[in-house]
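Worked example 2:
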Amino acid sequence: NIILNLGKYSYKSMLSNGNIASYSLKGEREIYSKCSGDICVVITNKNFLGISNFSTEWNMTHFFNEDQYKTKFGNLGVFISTERDLYLYNGLLNKWTEFSLEGEQVLGLSNKNDLACIITSKRIIGINLRLDTKSEMNISHRKITAYEIKSDTIFFYSDDKAFKYSSIQNSFELLNLLN
């Protein structure tokens, strides 16, 4: 597991290989911090910071005027949702990805091993963290009632259809559940 030391002037993380990564605060203040397994995330008044046992340095992304946020940790990824946007920290690649949520409501977020998924009121997104690929499908007129993440596939279920995200092909396939 990764260990986090939040100092007054810098943050230090002790990685599982014994290396230490530092981040200088430069006028920032901590709002939230959490470590889970191989990943740590810190939210300051200016930035989202992430580090994992798969990286050697902190990675950050800026955010502006966001007062409310929610976090959801998976084993290799962390989601941070704000009033306007959704951010995903990919612990495998030490990388942040931003998803605009204009006019959308987040209904589900999940990460299991190399795969992650996002369900909103308008679309579903399948993500392969290891390959840094993603694909999305518009679902404006369907309600997703369940999903399951398997080894290289994510299934999203609605009443009579299933949407199959193949991480190998990075694409969706529509399946009929009723004949």
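DSSP finds no helices and 19 strands in the chain. The chain has a mean pLDDT of 91.
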